[in-house]
Design goal:
Blueprint (H helix, E strand, L loop, with lengths): L1 H28 L13 H10 L6 H13 L14 H36 L4 H15 L2 H15 L16 H27 L2 H8 L4 H13 L1 H25 L4 H11 L2 H29 L1 H10 L1
Amino acid sequence: MLIYIIKRLLQAIPVLLIVITATFFMVHAAPGGPFDKDRAVSAEVMKKLNEQYHLDDPLWKQYVNYLGNLLQGDFGPSFKYPAHSVNDLLLAGLPATLELSFYAIVFALVIGLSAGILASLKPNTAQDYVPMSAAMIGICMPTFVLGPILLLVFGIWLGWFPVAGWGQIPGDKVLPSITLGFAYAAYIARISRGGMLEIMSQDYIRTARAKGLSTLRIVFVHALRGGVTPVISFLGPALAGLLAGSFVVESIFQIPGLGRFYVTAAFNRDYTMILGFTIFFAALIIIFNLLADIILVRLNPKLRQELQGGN
């Protein structure tokens, strides 16, 4: 397993380098600069600003310098917030984004697994059609549509939950978590239903039924481990999607997470912040996918044997 993890980490290095290189040259290829939207300044002041941030250096030199700073863990200064570095802004917004993603994935797993298992017990009946129809609605409805609907109904009309904020008022984390996790709950419901249906048709499940074991024991003791294996495979991309999708949800519910900085950086052409946040999220995506693969190998004896044979 250790050799497998080391190989995956080594494979991640060229992936990150490609992400860094592509992002660096794309942001510099965009028209305009980080100081274009500031109040008008003289050519001399603009020259001094470019010199201060080394924007007057050749592009290849800027790239090499950025890689050198990156190897030291320095994402550079922010052009929009000159008193703060990108590292400072990452640390400031990361807790809220991670907390939102955590609540969303917990909601998605609880609702999605419950709906998928329930639907698999009686396929092609109302017990199957109702949750799967709801899952299809969740897949088709984007967060920028679902969020305002939940705000309108549960925040304004019914007044059950706050319409904005994060951690200031009781219940203000409910609607954002549901908004972000609803689509993933739908995917998990459909995936877990398919996995459970395949497992429930296996010979050892029929043997367990013939022995008179209860449905609950069959599901949770014998079938669940194999039935949720496809869900484990989905968790890596799902966590990555949650982090990316949190930008929209954070904007809708005014959550002080990484999304506000990332969106602002895009509008203001804050090169270092765009690069830093992109690299950080790319690294998180790689880590989450690796963790999901490790859990999958631990749950699946066949994969574990293949891995040991390959090593």
